[in-house]
Write a structure and sequence with these properties.
The chain is an alpha+beta fold. 26% of the residues lie in helices and 25% in strands. The strands form 7 sheets. Strands 1, 2, 27, 28 and 29 form a 5-stranded antiparallel β-sheet that branches. It has a 5-stranded mixed β-sheet with strand order 14-15-16-17-21, with no helix packed on it. A 4-stranded antiparallel β-sheet has the order 3-4-5-6, with no helix packed on it.
Length: 714
């Protein structure tokens, strides 16, 4: 079985007018599974944190130059490596700002691709088929590079593997309609060449994917006819010279008319493959889909229609699929499990549902709603409400039927048998979403029906998402149920930016007195400080005194502190009550994309913006103290989240804030704070070289409890 979860946009595309150009060269893994390196088909390289949908760093070549292959991360040094204008190697680190000043080396031949390996030197594949390790290439950049390929032979695809700590590079080429495959070993330096049968009738391979297992490479090739073929490449062939590589048909896609031109394939886990740019049935017409197929049973497991059309680009990294379509790069998490024949046949029966979207469940709606599959109870079922049989818990159809016409007070009694079922059951997850949607529909149709306790229990299961019940959060705001809204923000991983901003506006508008009777989770706030409790005298290793505008020295002490002129005003008190503070902290911790959030932030009034900025100022002061180096509470926002929201508010309302007299003092404090921080970092930059030299000093012997060392710095 396999499932596609709800996707989200990572970034926009600078796509050209042609459907052949998405504006993207490639995506490579970053420092951890949550980081990716996105290379534009032009001048830019950007590192993204996927979960936050935010860029961590971006570099661009100057006008007239171009990055010609996807940038990769050097696994040993932590540096980024890219190729500019086909022959110029560029190497840089996260802290490098100006791309023109980073290391460069001009090579003697044009590069096709760079492949990174986790614990070894990256491999450089030249356009004429030669392969070099990066360190050997940097030792002599102008070294002669042999031509492996014949005239007019062009590299179409390449991939690298690690076998017994030795690197392998596999790449395919095309010449006059004929396809060839090359396997390059480096230690020892051995090259194997294979020829691949053509399919005939003008069909040609358009995408490749490969996996290594048991000393054999399994290559899967998608042809323009819609056929997926499998080829087995041995790492130790018994015959020397060019060999013929037979292929076997693995899957035939339902291509009704014409041929595929913008499609791509990638291998997944447990006998599954993902294909983009092809229909999943002959009846879907010209629409483009992302599909997951089971290759063992040749069955469709999940599919997602792609708005705006696909470009035939697909990448897989850390359980997520990255696909370009329309004007965006979309990330879709997925999951694959070992499939049985029974599960595959069950999928064949699901003809009415073409798309599996990512709600927290992975099964087809119809498989649960129209089949009499009972949910398994958590315990032996003593005292549990049942129908038709004392040993079976109710099906979803039965639960939905029982909910019709009951009052708000009776809903919990009806749902108790269902809520007692195992929460890890796929049927439970799917049924939970369906029951929630039905309850929300009734709440919207009948203003007098609002089972608050049941809705809170459903949200606390952790099995719901905004995409599976889109009206949940907005209903909570409409009913002024701030506790339920807080639960949804805590539990839903995919709250849209528009809904997040609606929650922020509601939280800022509600009076603290109105929140007194409301039950709010205060885990993210401190119960000690509040109005009347100042933070004076608590500092985090630095003085809040501002640097003199014309001076270069950092003032470390001051006989008197002008609290009114500093952003770090240690006498600040919280401008909102505890409960409103807890609600606002949930907003600060939410995931968002800046480009999608900024337009909605402009809907806030100037009074709301100033109040929120004062609260953010207060939080920053709290996080800057020696005692409070980290805000108390498991759900407290981080300093980075606080400052990101300060920047967002200023971007969205800078003109309005300048014109508002009540914001003048706040903006002045912020300006002085930023100025002092810039100068502080400037001073730290002056001693950066000294600190690096100190780090290189090796201790030759163990030092006792006390010693005096003289270190000479040149």
């Amino acid at each position: 079985m396999a499932a596609l979860y709800e996707g989200f946009t990572l970034c926009g595309l600078a796509a050209g007018k042609s459907r052949e150009n998405s504006g993207l060269l490639g995506i490579e893994p970053g420092r951890d599974p949550d980081h990716v390196i996105v290379t534009g088909a032009g001048r830019t390289v950007t590192v993204y944190k996927v979960s936050d949908q935010k860029p961590l760093g971006s570099w661009a070549a100057k006008q007239g130059q171009a990055v010609t292959c996807p940038a990769v991360l050097h696994g040993q040094t932590g540096e980024y490596v890219a190729v500019q204008d086909s022959k110029v190697l560029r190497i840089w680190r996260d802290e490098d700002i100006n791309f023109e000043k980073v290391f460069k080396a001009t090579l003697s031949a044009a590069v096709s691709r760079i492949h990174a390996l986790p614990s070894l030197e990256p491999l450089v594949l030249f356009q004429r088929g030669a392969v070099r390790q990066l360190d050997a290439l940097l030792a002599a950049p102008q070294q002669a590079v042999e031509e492996v390929l014949s005239e007019d032979e062009v590299i179409r695809w390449s991939s690298c593997f690690l076998e017994a700590e030795q690197p392998l590079l596999l790449f395919s080429t095309e010449k006059s309609g004929e396809c060839f495959l090359y396997l390059q070993k480096l230690k020892p330096n051995v090259l194997h060449k294979y020829s691949i049968d053509s399919e005939g009738k003008g069909a040609c391979p358009i995408s490749f994917t490969a996996t290594l297992e048991n000393k054999c490479i399994t290559l899967m090739c998608l042809y323009s006819s819609g056929c997926v073929y499998k080829l087995l490449v041995s790492l130790h062939p018994s015959v020397e010279g060019e060999q013929h590589l037979p292929k076997s048909l693995l899957l035939k896609l339902p291509v009704s008319e014409g041929v595929l031109s913008r499609a791509a394939i990638t291998s997944l886990e447990e006998g599954h493959i993902a294909i983009v740019g092809s229909p999943h049935s002959a009846s879907t017409g010209d629409r483009d889909f992302l599909c997951i197929w089971n290759t063992n049973f040749q069955t469709l497991q999940a599919s997602k229609e792609l708005a705006g059309g696909a470009y035939g680009q697909l990448w897989c990294n850390a359980g997520k699929l990255y696909v370009t379509h329309g004007k965006v790069l979309t990330v879709l998490p997925y999951r694959c499990e070992m499939s049985s024949l029974a599960a595959a046949l069950g999928k064949l029966k699901q003809t009415s549902t073409q798309e599996v979207t990512l709600s927290p469940s992975e099964l087809n709606w119809n498989s649960l709603l129209h089949e009499e599959t009972a949910l398994q109870p958590r315990t032996g079922g003593a005292g549990m409400r049942t129908r038709n049989s004392a040993t079976l818990s109710p099906t979803i159809n039965q639960v939905l039927e029982d909910l019709k016409g009951v009052s708000s007070e009776e809903v919990e009694e009806v749902l108790e048998p269902f809520l007692s079922c195992s929460p890890v059951s796929p049927q439970f997850q799917l049924g939970l979403s369906h029951i929630t949607v039905e309850l929300l529909k009734r709440c919207q149709a009948d203003p007098g029906f609002y089972p608050q306790t049941v809705l809170a229990r459903l949200a606390q299961t952790g099995r719901l998402s905004h995409s599976s019940c889109p009206g949940f959060l907005m209903l909570a705001l409409e009913k002024r149920d701030y506790f339920l809204a807080q639960l949804c923000l805590q539990q839903f991983p995919d709250v849209p930016e528009a809904v997040t901003c609606a929650c922020l506006k509601a939280f800022l508008s509600v009076a603290d007195a109105d929140l007194v009777p409301v039950n709010v989770d205060l885990e993210g706030v401190s119960l000690v400080d509040g109005p009347g409790h100042s933070l004076e005298g608590v500092q985090n290793g630095f003085s809040p005194v501002l640097l003199e505008e014309d001076g270069c020295d950092v003032q470390l002490t001051a006989p008197k502190l002008d609290q009114s002129s500093s952003w770090i005003d240690m006498s600040l008190t919280r401008p909102v009550g505890l409960k409103k503070s807890a609600l606002l902290n949930e907003i600060l911790r939410s995931s968002y994309s800046e480009s999608f959030l900024l337009p909605h932030l402009k809907d806030l009034s100037s009074r709301q913006v100033i109040l929120f900025l004062r609260y953010l100022q207060y939080l920053y002061v709290r996080s800057s103290g020696d005692v409070y180096t980290q805000l108390p509470g498991l759900r407290a926002p981080t300093v980075t989240q606080i400052m990101d929201w300060v920047s967002l508010l200023l971007d969205a309302h800078f003109t309005v804030l300048i014109m508002a007299p009540e914001a003048k003092g706040l903006l002045t404090q912020l300006h002085r704070f930023v100025r002092s921080q810039v100068r502080l970092y400037s001073e730290l930059g002056k001693i950066q070289g000294t600190l690096q030299e100190l780090g290189k000093i090796n201790k030759e012997q163990e030092i006792g409890l006390y010693s005096i060392e003289v270190i000479e710095l040149f």
